[in-house]
Structures are given as C-alpha cells and as structure tokens.
Amino acid sequence: MLQCQDVTKTYRTPNGEVKALGDVSLRIDKGQFVAVCGPSGSGKTTLLMTMAAMLRPSAGMVRFEEEDIYGMAGSERAVFRAKNIGFVFQMFHLVPYLNVLENVRLAGGAVGGRDGGRARELLQRLGLQHRMDHRPAQLSTGERQRAAMARALLNRPKLILADEPTGNLDPDSAASVLGHLRDFHRAGGTVVIATHGPAAQELATRTIHLRNGTIERDG
Ligand SMILES: Nc1ncnc2c1ncn2[C@@H]1O[C@H](COP(=O)(O)OP(=O)(O)OP(=O)(O)O)[C@@H](O)[C@H]1O
Ligand SMILES: [Mg+2]
After folding, report:
1. Atom of ligand 1 nearest to the CA of 213
2. pTM, full prediction
3. Which residues line ligand 1 (CB under 6 A)?
4. Which ligand is located closest to the Cα atom of residue 213?
5. Nearest ligand to the CA atom of 41
6. Atom 16, ligand 1: which residue's CA is nearest?
7. What is the pLDDT along the chain (219 residues), one digit of tens a residue?
C-alpha cells in the first residue's frame, strides 16, 4: 500500500542542518496495524508526516499504491491526501473559530464531497453528539481528540496515520481513541501509529523501532 524508499529528511535551521531521517526504507501492507516507537527526537513525527504526503523528503521516494506522491503537483497531492489518508495529530489541530461539526465537515471540502450526514453520524459514534455546536476550546482534551478522530475518518480513508494520539489523554479517553483505531483496522483499514504506550503496541501487528532517524528493529 505504502512504500518508503531511501527516505532522508534534513531540516535546515539557523544553527545548521538536522538530519531527522536517514535512508529509511519500508513497506506498509494493506490491513497492517503498525506501531512506530523510539525515543524522543528519533524521527517518528517526521516519518509519519512524510508518509502522509505532508512533508517532502530531502531525498528518496514515497509511493502510495504505486503513485509517487511527491511527484504530483501540490494541489493534486492535497486532494489525493484528503481522499486516501486520515491524520490524527498529537495536538489535535482543530480550527479554533469553528465548532466541532464544522471542523469535521471541513475535511470533506478538499474532495468536494457533501458529507450527507456522515459528520454527524461519526460524532455520534464518538460520543460527541452533545458537543457538535461547541468550539474546540470548550471541550476537554479527550473530546478534542475524538473530534480529531472523526475528522480523520470522514472521507473513509484507506490509511490512518496517528501521531501519539493518546499522549495527552487520560486512560479512559486513550482507550476510546485506540478503540476507534481498532474498529477502523477491523473494518479493513490500515493504521500507522507513533506511540510510546504499551496499549497501542499490543494492538499492533508490527512494531518498527526508530533510533536517530533510522530503523533499528522491525517486526
Ligand atoms: N521543523 C524542524 N526544524 C528543525 N529540526 C526539526 C524540526 N522538526 C523536527 N526536528 C528535529 O528532527 C529530529 C526528529 O524529530 P521528530 O519530531 O521527527 O522526532 P519524534 O521521534 O517525533 O520525537 P517526539 O517523541 O519528541 O515527538 C529531532 O532531532 C528534532 O529536533
Ligand atoms: Mg513526535
């Protein structure tokens, strides 16, 4: 489904270059539930963003179902991403001046879709039916992450990438978010999750360990 080939990412900063990923090659197959682990700074977020068509690697290639995603024009890539990939950020990234329902519906815009009540249905499934008209700032942390999960699910993506989605959550909210990722996986979806937590690693069918921007262990 997704293939990284010799992916290198170097960030340029005023203090010099930082190599975040060095020659990472891997394949994610359809139906896998992959946990990406590794110490802080090992490159987990960089790898997920690169796989999500959001961050162009300095070298190497990323293919999604044989398509070279960074070979596409930017606008084409944005539509491709919205159709195929759901992303759950560690810090939610909800739009502060839109309510929860509007935040979820926003994800449908890029694919020109009318959500046909799906946004409402998802929010109901995630236990947020009573919070649809609220702004993110009025929600608890766990509710925000469930809203972000609804947004990731809206376009029925093939792949969900989740960057430490439970890192800031209490145990109940964390279990709820992981439960929804498990349901997505059981329904045939592919999941890649960056995580420090043992609960996510138990769900995973494969664990990739990163260290200093390279794969230390995979299996
Ligand atoms: N925008 C950036 N500019 C410069 N350096 C960056 C940038 N983003 C990340 N880095 C550096 O790249 C390396 C990998 O960072 P990354 O965020 O991918 O790690 P991580 O494994 O997700 O860490 P954490 O567990 O703390 O989230 C780190 O050394 C980090 O300092
Ligand atoms: Mg990170």
Report:
1. 14
2. 0.93
3. 11, 13, 18, 20, 38, 40-46
4. 1
5. 1
6. 43
7. 999 999 999 999 999 999 999 999 999 999 999 999 999 999 999 999 999 999 999 999 999 999 999 999 999 999 999 999 999 988 778 888 899 999 898 888 766 666 668 899 999 999 999 999 999 999 998 999 999 999 999 999 999 999 999 988 888 888 988 999 999 999 999 999 999 888 888 889 999 999 999 999 998
Burial class of residue 84 in the structure, from the number of CB atoms within 10 Å of its CB (0-12 exposed, 13-18 middle, 19+ buried): buried
CA gap 149, 199 in Å, rounded: 18
Residue 88, phi-psi category: left (phi > 0), alpha (psi -120 to 50), beta (remainder): beta
Q: Tokens standing for 162?
A: 């989740």
CA–centroid distance, 11 to ligand 2, in Å, is: 14
- The domains located in the chain, with CATH, are 29-57+73-218 (3.40.50.300)
Ligand nearest, relative to CA of residue 9: 1
CB 161 within 8 A of CB 181: no
In order of 28, 107, 187, 198, 202, the CA distances from 33 in angstroms are 9, 23, 12, 14, 10
C-alpha 46 – ligand 2 centre gap (Å): 7
Q: Which of 17, 40, 46, 54 to mutate to test the pocket of ligand 1 (most atoms within 8 A of CB)?
A: 46
Atom of ligand 1 nearest to the CA of 49: 18
Q: Which of 44, 49, 89 to mutate to test the pocket of ligand 1 (most atoms within 8 A of CB)?
A: 44
